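Researcher: Let's do a round of design. I'm pasting the structure tokens now; please hold your answer until I've finished.
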């Protein structure tokens, strides 16, 4: 691999590692809008506050211990919601007495803002059936194993904060303020007092945390999966989404037009094989992540990924299994090879953006990949303009030379159109031989 190639790959790796880990920082304190006195006055005992990692949620609290050992927690929970939704919006906060923070087993307070702006706040017991799609109805305190008092809800038009307040009394036998499992959520539809299923973005899936109410520090049991998702995204963006297109550009524009290079084939193979290896590693990691996600899945994203891996593997088999130049069906194989290459690049770009959308809440990924696509498109456009400019100039030069030789009985031979050459019609996500690319037959530079 040449030094310039290594520098390009290193630059892309550094870019994505910087983006991926930029968000792994301690959560900042709450926003001024959330701490506005018009809100906190309804729960003036709030002494601590933090921004939660997902959904733009913010959480304020204070607590004290009763003489019988029970824990009294005053909570203030809010989310800045989009006010253009015509359906009901609901927000939820709850605690889970089990050994790790998760949705199943959570005792939740859910506030629903109806489409007519009326508001409901109730207690709910989140069970395994709930996660599988069964109806979620209000539950009495006796079913929750805790007490909830002074439940209130408000919506501030100016800041778009939807907020719930409550006093929660937890039995110390099941809850520990140093390791309190709490869960939060946002949904965008409800049927009266029944919140309907929330979106399936990873932001919604990751809205759990074990928090220390004394320090405010928290961590999630699924943090390792989040790191693996980051690695999965980086591998696929670098492999499928960057190196494979670079290999196509090298094969298309370094064979003859616009600059002939004896290293084009080595560079082409380097980009294609490197991209395939990284992309396959990311694909395999994605399969594992999908298997580890017991209660949710991203099926269209998975189907596209299987399509990409399967047909890219078929393209790579052309390293050894492509027909010979003299075979009668070679031109039909070339047509299939190029069309499949175009289709793969299209599906790759679509699926990368689908993956970024699943990782909603990390906007830098989207803009970073858009920047990569702009760079690749700009390089392709410049090469294409240069190719056609060079071709037209050589064609004009050939015509002038022919006109200046009237005694030559032979007819001048036309310069072959580089874009009409059979082998250079599309991306070759495989190894290619020189027969795949155009030549300037009988051009002035090759006579």
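Researcher: That's everything. Go ahead.
Model: Designed sequence:
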């Amino acid at each position: 691999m040449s030094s310039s190639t290594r520098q390009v790959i290193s630059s892309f790796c550094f870019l994505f590692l910087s983006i991926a880990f930029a968000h792994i920082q301690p959560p900042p304190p709450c926003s001024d809008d959330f701490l506005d006195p018009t809100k906190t006055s309804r729960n003036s005992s709030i002494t601590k506050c933090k921004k939660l990692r997902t959904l733009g949620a913010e959480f304020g609290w204070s607590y004290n211990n009763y003489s019988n050992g029970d824990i009294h927690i005053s909570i203030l929970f809010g989310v800045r919601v989009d006010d253009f939704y015509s359906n009901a919006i609901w927000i939820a906060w709850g605690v889970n007495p089990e050994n790790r923070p998760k949705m199943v087993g959570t005792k939740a307070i859910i506030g629903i803002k109806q489409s007519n702006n009326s508001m409901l706040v109730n207690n709910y017991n989140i069970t395994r059936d709930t996660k599988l799609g069964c109806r979620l109805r209000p539950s009495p305190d006796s079913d929750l194993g805790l007490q909830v008092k002074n439940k209130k809800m408000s919506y501030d038009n100016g800041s778009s904060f939807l907020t719930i307040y409550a006093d929660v009394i937890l039995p110390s036998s099941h809850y520990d303020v140093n390791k309190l499992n709490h869960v939060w959520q946002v949904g965008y539809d409800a049927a009266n007092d029944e919140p309907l299923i929330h979106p399936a973005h990873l932001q919604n899936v990751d809205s759990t945390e074990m928090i220390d109410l004394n320090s405010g520090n928290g961590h999630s049991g699924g943090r390792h999966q989040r790191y693996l998702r980051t690695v999965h995204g980086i591998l696929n963006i670098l492999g499928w989404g960057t190196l494979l297109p670079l290999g196509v550009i090298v094969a298309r524009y370094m064979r003859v037009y616009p600059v002939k290079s004896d290293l084009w084939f080595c560079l082409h193979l380097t980009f294609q094989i490197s991209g395939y290896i990284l992309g396959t590693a990311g694909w395999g990691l994605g399969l594992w992540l999908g298997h580890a996600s017991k209660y949710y899945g991203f099926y269209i994203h998975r189907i596209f990924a299987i399509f990409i891996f399967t047909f890219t593997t078929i393209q790579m088999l052309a390293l050894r299994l492509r027909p010979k130049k003299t075979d009668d069906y070679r031109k039909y194989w070339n047509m299939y090879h190029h069309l499949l290459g175009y289709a793969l690049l299209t599906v790759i770009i679509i699926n990368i953006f689908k993956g970024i959308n699943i990782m909603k809440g990390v906007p830098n990924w989207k803009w970073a990949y858009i920047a990569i696509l702009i760079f690749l498109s700009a390089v392709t456009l410049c090469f294409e303009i240069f190719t056609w400019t060079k071709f037209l100039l050589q064609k004009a030069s050939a015509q002038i030379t022919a006109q200046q030789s009237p005694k030559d009985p032979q007819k001048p031979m036309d310069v072959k159109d580089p874009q009409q050459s059979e082998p250079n019609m599309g991306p070759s996500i495989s190894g290619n031989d020189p027969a795949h690319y155009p030549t300037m037959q009988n051009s002035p530079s090759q006579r």
